[in-house]
Amino acid sequence: MATERRSGPLGSRTPGSALGVRNVLAMLRTPLEHLQRVSEAHGDVIDMPMLSQRWLILTHPDDVEALLVTHHASLVRDEFAVYLRQVLGEGLLTSEGELWKRQRRLSATAFTPKRIKGYAPAMSAVTDRGLARIEAGRPVRLHEVMARLTMEVVAEVLFGAGITEADVQTVSRAMTLLNHLLANSPEAALRIPTWAPTPNHRAAARALANVDAVIHRIIDARRRSGETRDDLLSALLSAVDDDGSRMSDQQLRDETLTLFLAGHETTSLALTHALYLLGRHPDVLGRVMAEADDVLGGRLPTADDVPRLALTERVIKEAMRLYPPAWVVGREVATPIEIGGRTVPVGTQALVSQWLTHRDPRWWPRPEAFDPDRFLPDVARSRPRFAYFPFGGGPRVCIGSHFAMMEAVLMLSLIVSRFEVELLPHETLRFQPSITLQPKDGGVRVRFLPRASARARDEAAASSA
Ligand code: HEM
To answer: Does the global pTM surpass 0.85?
Structure first.
């Protein structure tokens, strides 16, 4: 698709000292605002010095595609992935080259459409149990509730009945600590090696050792029993490569830990943002509730319901456009590439940002407005393919994208069929972006009102008006 290009009034190079100290400080303090500012001033290709590094930020969909798809073989993971590798090991998110290719091939067997459909009953059942725990009317942090729910869903889908309530607590605690370490700690910002015995590193190491014990115990039990189940672990355990080899216990540990980390936080953010937007747009909320009532009629959602929950799906997509859980994707250039009309040298950190491209008025008229109908098939077809890429793209596209979409649709439909999620007065989304678009100060507060009592409240308000 031919698409117009934009060069900014100030050329592509960001201002400030050659060392880019100003960029570094701004990216630490207010990254979203800084990116927006430099994008408006410098156009589709932004050349940004960052101390010893050179960042190249690409916002045009054609360049996003060129980076993620066309030039995939000339790029490696960015330097944050190198830091992450010390924590997660060599799972899909952090591995490279032949190891990554083999692991991706083997892991793909756990994410076929048939397998994903098979995870739906566990997703619905766990959400149902989690919703039953919610104390109606009590103010809670929306993101905390969603993170706990998606954590339990991933744990159940990965390990099935092999995981106990105490294990889920162990893993939850570890994920909270890891998220904090990777997201908000000075260790991660300064890329301090994880062997340095700082309090954050020590706490994360203890928590990880506990998770390792859980994972290894479950793997051992599964290997001993020889049992095959419908869960993700069984799919990974039984995956056989062309040469007849399987994943070692260490690889299984690295992959399951990666799936925990990559799989629960992103989906919980998508749901948090969708519910926030619905709280702000009662008209759309009413339509989404009507869809859930119509399709589910009060029962638990199944995989077969997903195609009929079309508006619910569009709401999730629009929430991920406005507030993309993964807001930036980076690569390091390993062999020079031609992109955005220039030759990019080895060592450059090339970045594409969902936050920027998803808000570009060339592809998204009135970009700040919440309008799920942008994702009606006919409207979506009129945009360049990479104007929207919440799950990345190319060979390293999110392996869990279909899993996540089904999970988010099932969960959102079940939530709105049971509750009206009411935002407390004056609550607005504010972010403290790290690898994901984390909420600032714990995020917005809401009350979960059972549907019947929400109706009674509205009727009382109408009769007193
Ligand atoms: C709304 C939810 C999700 C979002 C927005 C999301 C986003 C992404 C993005 C943007 C990437 C590409 C990163 C890059 O190119 O550097 C990615 C990779 C990945 N995601 Fe997701 N993800 C989500 C859910 C999940 C789930 C549910 C799982 C697993 C159950 C998962 C597992 C992974 C893994 C393993 C990778 C690395 C793939 C590879 O490099 O081969 N994600 N995700």
So the answer is: yes
